[in-house]
Amino acid sequence: MMESKLSDLCSEHGVVYSDLRSVRSRIQVISSDSRNTNISDTTFSGFGVRVFKSGSLGFSYSTDMTDLGKTFARAVKIAHSVGRKDAHLPERNPIRDRYTKSIKIDPFSVEEPEKLAWLNSFRKGLQCKPIKDVHTALLFSRVNTIFADSAGSEVEQTITRSMVGVNVVGARNETLSSVSFRRSDTAGYELLSDIDVEKESAELKKRLSNTLSAGRAPAGKFTVVCDPKLTGLFFHEAVGHACEADYVLNRASVLCDKRGESIASSTVTLSDDPNLRTWGHYKYDDEGTRAKETRLISDGLLTGYLHSRTTAVEMGVEPTSNGRAMSTEVVPMPRMSVLKVEPGDMSVDEMMSMDNVILAKGFTGGEVDLVKGNFIFGCEEAFLIREGEKIPLRDVAFSGNILETLRNVLGIGKKLQQTYTGGMCGKKGQSVPVSEVMPYMVVSGVYVGGENS
Questions:
Q1: Using DSSP, how many helices (H) and how many strands (E) does the chain show?
Q2: β-pairing, 215-216 with 389-394?
Q3: pLDDT score of 453
Q4: Which CATH superfamily is domain 2-213 in?
Q5: Are 386 and 436 in contact (CB under 8 A)?
Q6: Which of 287, 331, 426 is nearest to 61 (CA)?
Q7: How far apart are CA 27 and CA 422, in angstroms?
Q8: Is 452 helix (H, G, I), strand (E, B) or coil?
Q9: Cβ pair 383, 391 in contact under 8 A
Q10: Which residues are paired to 44 by β-bridges?
């Protein structure tokens, strides 16, 4: 057993604790546009070893499991060379478990021609004016992870993920615009059978027509109604990252020293929960910590941060099951999994009944300064609601301060929605799968960049 091998190596090298994370993965990506079709199918296997000796941390990795003894010795040598002497992990009871996220249809059992035919059926429904190009993609991944440590833990986890992405680019006169569709989940090939291609194609054409015929947004401060996708983007980029404990410890977060303080409207309650069965789901993090819900904001109060085992030690708290690593070549660090804003008591109709508000849907990207707390986000679609009329807008960007925006939340929608926008979140050169379960949200005093801004 792997944990007994680690225990023997610890005794041999005088190491107080070590853990190992091995990964076997397969990823298939099929993409196409008007010019090319590309198919990639890659596999990987490897492991990383972390050792703690005399208060120092050492880490090494290899792609050859028969190289465990040499890799362990390299990690010990690195620990000897580290000047820091206060690294350690809290003791915990050994964990032994095996978990496989259930799916209905193994995506790797479906032949490539069938997958291409499905993509082409989506493209076929989008071959009309004013559409200039259609980019489609399928992604399927299966990752098997084994975590073992010298304390007797051994946890095996297998998760399959599937994703569909469609981006439609159109032009009318001198206006160029794009809209997109995405569906992602911890599911198998059955994800595709749940998608009504004809309906989604028609919706994409309608949305593209709206954006191409839309006028520019007026500039100034507005009350904004955010759909679940844009709500998810705000809480992920502007709040979730600011709650990651390594940023907090390095004083690179606007939320430093604010635990226990009121940072948001009392309508806001935010948590991170890997147990939710969406794209970012897992049962154990990459340090073998059992997944659990972590409350970050409760009725407007900042109640906690996201931790790995090492940051938890530094702050004197329990790990939150957010120690994650992109590969076996890096050590885990605090990362989000599945963010969720608790539902409120406001209906979408109530939000839309306000006059002179902007309804914002989806997103096109943005930037955040976590230290100063400023952000700017672009939205995919927007409408000005004025005197009961819904006026399409384009090229709409929102900006503001994280804390001011949180305090200006007027209401949270009654219904939660899986946003299906889950993707790969990048941080310090690493990418991991994350997702959101969000309601509609209405916020006052948001700066809108538009005409004459």
A1: 10, 26
A2: parallel
A3: 45
A4: PmbA/TldD superfamily (3.30.2290.10)
A5: no
A6: 331
A7: 16
A8: coil
A9: yes
A10: 25
Break the chain into its structural domains and give their ranges: 2-213, 216-449
SS3 429: coil
Cα–Cα distances (Å) from 174 to 171, 212, 213, 217, in that order, read 7, 10, 11, 17
User: Residue 321: pLDDT above 60?
Assistant: yes
The CA angle 446-410-264, to the nearest 5 degrees, is: 85
Secondary structure class of 248 (helix, strand, coil): helix
CA neighbours within 13 Å on the CB side: how many for 362? 16
Q: pLDDT for 141-189, tens place per residue? A: 999 999 999 999 999 999 999 999 999 999 998 888 999 999 999 999 9
How far apart, in whole angstroms, are the C-alpha atoms of residue 208 and residue 198? Answer: 16
Tell me the β-bridge partners of 345: none
The Cα–Cα gap between 126 and 208 comes to 11
- Is pLDDT at 232 greater than 60 in this prediction? yes
Is residue 213 within a helix (H) or strand (E), and if so which, with residue range?
Answer: helix 197-213
Give pLDDT tens digits for 346-365.
999 999 999 899 999 999 88
Which residues, 6+ apart, have CB-to-CB distance to 120 below 8 Å?
A: 32
Enumerate the H helices of 91-240 as residue ranges: 112-124, 190-193, 197-213, 228-234
Strand partners, 443: 224, 409
pLDDT for position 324: 98
Which residues on neighbouring strands pair with residue 357, listed in sequence order?
223, 385
Q: Is 69 helix (H, G, I), strand (E, B) or coil?
A: helix
Which SS3 state, helix, strand or coil, does residue 218 take? strand
Token representation of residue 91:
């003791």
Give mean pLDDT, residues 273-283: 97
CA-CA distance, 146 to 383, in Å (whole number)? 48
pLDDT tens digits for 2-52? Answer: 888 899 999 999 999 999 999 999 999 999 988 899 999 999 999 999 999
Per DSSP, the residues of 310-349 read HHHHHHTS---S-EE-SSTTS--EE---EEEEPP-SB-HH
Give the closest residue to 224 by CA, choosing from 448, 450, 453, 442. 442
| Interaxial angle between packed helices 2-13 and 68-81, expressed in degrees from 0 to 180 and rounded to the nearest 10 | 40
In sequence order, the 6+-apart residues with CB closer than 8 A to the CB of 232 are: 339, 419, 421, 436, 438
| CB contact set of 439 (below 8 Å; sequence gap of 6+) | 228, 231, 341, 343, 344, 412, 413, 414, 415, 416, 417
Nearest-angstrom CA–CA distance, 423 and 430: 13
Q: Which amino acid is at 377?
A: F
By the 8 A CB rule, do 163 and 131 touch?
A: no
**Cα distance between residue 334 and residue 274, in whole Å:** 13
